[in-house]
């Protein structure tokens, strides 16, 4: 049998190199897919890792946190499988198990989970942050906002906003936000009492002014709520809403009260008496809700 000529050997070598070159990208993709799947096979258990860390819990927390950030960057808006989000929640909670006083995993971890739509996971991280770092009002505030914006729990949100408000050096409007949440949750009387107590304890002119402004708005809301049944009765009797606040109060045999908000009384588009500023806010909210619905 004749030995292959150099030309044949060269051809075989070129063909082999071409085959390898064509197969390599596919092999790389397969390897990357397998590595991606294997990366999330094991979810870390914080207490167990801490017990096995041999006094190296903080460096281990660093590694878990870096891995969490990398996984988020690799998969956000790319990987539709929700399994990785569950893994991320578990890993972030394991990180704070290992290093409970490290602020970054609470601060960014809770926010990352909120961006991913895992509100329960975000709540768990923010709540742990509030417990571990009681002198940092940000975490109670963030937990409150999750309850308010995403879980339709204004009264629960108000309780956590209260906790944020009493932290020394916290943002001044936290207390006002808590009152507004109570009002939205139907506890208008509780919101007024809360702000009245806050006004009595206020020590700065700015705090007194802000609290008094919030109180005036709630006093108005209480009055407007009292007017509502009479406005409905007027419309039922006269088959039309009141033409003016003065006509309504004359029909109700009631003196025109002082408006706590300090502006004019008007008849709203719903036929109810309220302050001009409150009616403008109501209309803006309705338009914003319509815009969100149309989108």
Structure description:
The chain has 295 residues and is mainly α. Among the domains are: 44-133, Serine Threonine Protein Phosphatase 5, Tetratricopeptide repeat, CATH 1.25.40; 224-295, no CATH class. It has helices spanning 6-39, 46-52, 57-75, 83-98, 103-115, 119-132, 138-150, 154-165, 174-184, 188-201, 205-238, 245-251, 276-294, and strands at residues 265-267, 273-275. Strands 1-2 form a two-stranded antiparallel sheet. Strand 1 (265-267) and strand 2 (273-275) form a beta hairpin. Helix 4 (83-98) packs parallel to helix 6 (119-132) and helix 9 runs antiparallel to helix 10. The longest helix has 34 residues, at 6-39. The protein is elongated. The N and C termini lie far apart (78 Å).
List the helices and strands and how they pair.
Blueprint: H1 6-39, H2 46-52, H3 57-75, H4 83-98, H5 103-115, H6 119-132, H7 138-150, H8 154-165, H9 174-184, H10 188-201, H11 205-238, H12 245-251, E1 265-267, E2 273-275, H13 276-294
Antiparallel strand pairs: 1-2
Helix pairs in contact: 2-4, 3-4, 4-5, 4-6, 5-6, 6-7, 7-8, 8-9, 9-10, 9-11, 10-11
Distance between the termini: 78 Å
Number of strands: 2
Average pLDDT across residues? 82
- CATH fold name of the domain at 44-133: Serine Threonine Protein Phosphatase 5, Tetratricopeptide repeat
User: What is the second-level CATH architecture of the domain at 44-133?
Assistant: Alpha Horseshoe
| CATH class category name of the domain at 44-133 | Mainly Alpha
Structural class: mainly alpha
Structural Rg: 31 Å
Low-confidence stretches: none
Helix content: over 70%
What can be said about the biggest beta sheet? Answer: 2 strands, antiparallel
* SSE topology string: HHHHHHHHHHHHEEH
